[in-house]
Please model this.
Amino acid sequence: AQKITQTQPGMFVQEKEAVTLDCTYDTSDPSYGLFWYKQPSSGEMIFLIYQGSYDQQNATEGRYSLNFQKARKSANLVISASQLGDSAMYFCAMRVGQIQGAQKLVFGQGTRLTINP
Amino acid sequence: SAVISQKPSRDICQRGTSLTIQCQVDSQVTMMFWYRQQPGQSLTLIATANQGSEATYESGFVIDKFPISRPNLTFSTLTVSNMSPEDSSIYLCSTLQGGVYGYTFGSGTRLTVV
Model:
């Protein structure tokens, strides 16, 4: 069965520091995709970054980068120069299945990130 | 990517009643997903809805409790039936469009059952 594990229930970071949110995954499917979403207190899900299982390079999107270590089955999110607005819940998720199939997302438990001024 | 309008954004309902949540997408999409997020928890997939076919429910979720409608490629509804306080959650719809990572989420429905 596919599973996503986030072992950090909460993280507290000083503003402008970099922060790494951990995510490990488990799947036997060779084709998968890994996502990070941000969920503010309003409840919406904001897409941050995506890494495909066959991608050779780590994904980057502005201040977000994904440290993809395939052999270790980890996909950690790195936020550089954190800002107060980064305070939110962060979810790691995995898509499993081929394009023609039902590609549902499986979510981790989430990490609540708090940025202190 | 698609834009989803989800209604209502929040509601407070009496136990034993039902609430229907609507999601309207600004373009045609094949699959729509419905998630539940209980307080302080992660998102759990309730069901996958394809147009013109019965929704596929995940383990622990049944059609009698969470009937889903998918009348066309731009619209879907989820009904939470015979509600109890344990149904108090955020419910989110989602679609997949435009490639393997084109997931879009509605803004969520925050449901409180009293």
In short: Chain A touches chain B at residues 33, 35, 42-45, 47, 50, 52, 91, 93, 95, 99, 102-110 (CB under 8 Å). The two ends of chain A are 41 Å apart (CA to CA).
